[in-house]
Design a protein that fits this description.
Layout (H helix, E strand, L loop, with lengths): L18 E4 L3 E6 L2 E6 L3 E6 L6 E7 L2 E6 L3 E6 L5 E6 L7 E5 L7 E6 L4 E5 L4 E6 L6 E6 L5 E6 L3 E6 L4 E7 L8 E3 L6 E5 L5 E5 L4 E6 L7 E6 L5 E6 L3 E6 L8 E7 L5 E7 L5 E6 L3 E6 L7 E5 L4 H7 L11 E6 L10 E5 L5 E5 L4 E7 L14 E6 L5 E6 L4 E5 L5 E4 L10 E6 L5 E6 L3 E6 L5 E6 L4 E7 L4 E6 L4 E5 L4 E6 L6 E6 L5 E6 L3 E6 L4 E7 L4 E6 L5 E6 L5 E6 L29 H5 L6 E4 L45
Antiparallel strand pairs: 1-2, 2-3, 3-4, 5-6, 6-7, 7-8, 9-10, 10-11, 11-12, 13-14, 14-15, 15-16, 17-18, 18-19, 19-20, 21-22, 22-23, 23-24, 25-26, 26-27, 27-28, 29-30, 30-31, 31-32, 33-34, 34-35, 35-36, 37-38, 38-39, 39-40, 41-42, 42-43, 43-44, 45-46, 46-47, 47-48, 49-50, 50-51, 51-52
């Protein structure tokens, strides 16, 4: 909580975690119909089997743990022996269990809330129903113990919060929030009688229990529903999380009693579409997501992460309207180019948006969207439907951006002023849509690829056509390695060609992918080309020998890949996955034989880092070059990140073998939602 840094990462479970609870020694996680107990936040030490349907409620209870499934079967387990102590069956039509808690000082007793609205107090030692509370005409969503004995806060589907004395069965106070069902409740324990309540639209209500009135509202605390909120014991700190993949820490130090954002960790709330390493030290990864945000993730420590925000047509109007009612938000970024050369002077990132003609600039140092919107003058008055930017590149000096459109136009813009500086071709550069643009390291040539099958070389300054190369099938994307002058061209027939920029000759042709090639990346020295395809494989091609030297199969296709400038990690993002995964380059710390793979080589499936529960499966992998790893504290890969002096990684000898995951920042226990 002090730094919001990851202390431990557990081993993976086979499915999504649906509920999380903890006692003094163990952390309990429900996963499907099974309940697992983690020790030391790492390994599973107990597994409780007995439910037939998914578990949705868990409550640690001394030497026992209680779980409730979707069929309303409540089982009390002995933690150590993993045996059933007691089972209670409820009729769904009469009492469908929706909340569970243990009232403080009530020995051997639990309080259950139902979707029908009634509450039941049970003695689980004698297996007796002690009392039934009739309810308030609406389903119960949350039960929370107040700091005072006998007092319980009940959150309802109707948005009402009932502060109830269960000893005398009387209502002490009643509040209402107009934001939908109550999703979470927590009480301050630092001397202030304040209750916080979450809502499905991301707002938090703060209620003064002394004055019995609304103290303050925290609007748009999250972009989605508040999944969980909890005050730190004895501190004016509130931790919240939501399904927008964010965890936020709020401090209450203002006279108004409202919370101020102190720290946060957030990832993409929708899958990343493009990832690229930023800078030359290999410590920052730029990532664009389907949530229209551009974010920077650190491979050293979470506290160096930063969000550059969401793309907006008008930032001032967007701020006034707020997240929920923002009509100015731009479509997701499809591709972007970044350069560090002049990023301290002006914007250093240019991005293309899905189905959108105008390209946006972004400022990495300020961590925000830039000042310019780059749009061709010929479309300034009216924009025909179906015309949008498809490819972008920034010169190595950071002064110019080159943008290609679906119409075949390729334009040059000045990054400092945003002024249009010219275009390639008499009318347009290509007859078809532009599939890729690249500028060499010395600003001598601009290379463009069109869907009509031509790759053209232009003089950068004079915009004259120098040479063109024809391909039998259309290029789908291009990637230039500026240091070596090699151009990787992915084709629509799933083949790959390597073209030497100096001689304009094709020097290598590769085939083997069975699906569309989503992304390519070169190793820093230009010896390897790594490609990711919709056939769910990631292949490594050795350019000097012209051979395939590594291939592995994944459960989900990689959408984007990028190699670290230092050559130690490969980062990948995948279909319908919020995480950015890191794979370590084994050739840096162990002897790896780079023998060519046979033409009929059948790759074996490798689990994504951290997604496999069985350690034996993880060890039996045929991958030769690349190995999954986790940042900061991973003990499988050759690299292990130091927790002391976290500004840069240190090379340490690995202690044991275990694979893990680097994802967008984790979220807190979500009450009832994953």
């Amino acid at each position: 909580v002090k730094r919001l840094g990851i202390v431990a990462v557990s081993n993976g479970l086979p499915q999504d975690i649906t509920y999380l609870a903890a006692d003094r020694m163990l952390v309990f996680a429900s996963c499907g119909s099974l309940l697992y107990a983690f020790a030391r936040n790492k390994e599973v030490v107990h597994t409780y089997k007995g439910h037939d349907t998914d578990i949705h409620l868990v409550l640690p209870f001394g030497d026992h743990v209680i779980s409730v499934d979707r069929d309303d079967i409540l089982i009390i387990w002995d933690i150590q022996s993993e045996e059933e102590y007691l089972q209670l069956n409820f009729d769904k039509a009469v009492f469908a269990v929706s909340a569970i808690m243990h009232p403080s000082t009530y020995l051997n007793k639990i309080l259950l809330g139902s979707e029908q609205g009634s509450l039941q107090l049970w003695n689980i030692k004698s297996n007796k129903l002690l009392y039934t509370f009739p309810g308030w005409g609406a389903g119960v969503t949350v039960l929370e113990q107040a700091p005072a004995v006998d007092i319980v806060a009940v959150g309802l589907v109707s948005g009402h919060i009932i502060v109830h004395n269960i000893k005398y069965d009387e209502i002490l106070m009643k509040f209402q929030q107009d934001w939908g069902p109550i999703t979470a409740i927590s009480f301050r324990t630092d001397g202030h009688a304040v209750m916080a309540a979450g809502s499905p639209i991301g707002h938090i209500g703060l209620w003064d229990l002394d004055q019995k009135k609304l103290l303050s509202q925290m609007r748009n605390a999250h972009a989605t529903a508040i999944a969980g909120l909890s005050f730190v014991q004895g501190e004016p700190l509130l931790i919240t999380n939501g399904s927008d993949n964010a965890i936020r820490e709020w401090v209450f130090d203002a006279p108004s009693g409202s919370g101020r954002l102190l720290r946060f960790r957030m990832g993409h709330s929708a899958p990343p579409t493009k990832v690229r390493y930023h800078g030359q030290n290999g410590q920052q990864i730029l990532s664009a997501g389907q949530d229209s945000t551009l974010q920077s993730f650190s491979t050293v420590h979470d506290r160096f992460n930063k969000s550059l925000g969401r793309g907006s047509l008008n930032k001032k109007k967007s701020k006034k309207k707020g997240l929920l009612y923002d009509t100015m938000v731009l479509p997701p970024i499809t591709t972007f180019a970044a350069e560090v050369a002049r990023q301290s002077d002006w914007d250093g990132i240019v991005a293309c948006h899905q189905g959108y003609l105008t390209c946006t600039t972004w400022n990495y140092q300020k961590g925000s969207m830039g000042t310019h919107k780059l749009k061709p003058a010929i479309f300034s008055k009216n924009t025909p439907v179906g015309i949008y930017a498809t490819a972008v590149d920034i010169t190595s000096c950071g002064n110019f951006a080159v943008i290609g459109l679906t119409t075949g136009h390729v334009d040059i813009y000045n990054m400092q002023s945003g002024i249009h500086r010219g275009h390639y071709g008499k009318d347009k550069a290509h007859e078809g849509s532009v599939r890729g643009v690249a500028v060499d390291g010395l600003n001598q040539f601009t290379i463009t690829a069109g869907s009509e099958g031509f790759v053209k070389f232009w003089k950068f300054k004079t915009t004259d056509l120098v040479h063109s190369v024809s391909f039998p099938t259309s290029p789908s994307k291009v990637l230039l390695h500026r240091d070596s002058g090699l151009l990787g061209i992915a084709l629509d027939d799933f083949g790959i060609s390597i073209l030497d920029v100096e001689t304009t000759k094709i020097i290598r042709n590769f085939s083997g992918h069975q699906g569309q090639i989503n992304d390519m990346t070169f190793s820093p020295d230009g010896r390897w080309l790594i490609t990711a395809s919709m056939d769910c494989t990631i292949r490594t091609w050795d350019l000097p020998s012209g051979c395939l030297v590594d291939c592995f199969l994944l459960d989900s296709a990689a959408v984007s890949i990028t190699m670290s400038p230092t050559g130690d990690f490969l980062a990948s993002s995948h279909v319908d996955d919020l995480g950015i995964y890191l794979w370590s380059n084994r050739s840096l710390y162990s002897l790896v034989s780079l023998r060519p793979l046979a033409a009929d080589y059948e790759p074996s499936t490798v689990m994504l880092p951290g997604t496999s529960p069985a350690e034996d499966d993880l060890k039996c992998t045929t991958v030769k070059l690349i190995e999954n790893t986790q940042l900061k504290g991973d003990r499988k890969s050759g690299y292990q990140f130091s927790s002391i002096g976290e500004s840069h990684p240190s090379l340490k000898k690995p202690r044991n073998k275990k694979k893990a995951i680097y994802e967008s920042p984790p979220v807190f226990p979500a009450h009832g939602t994953s």
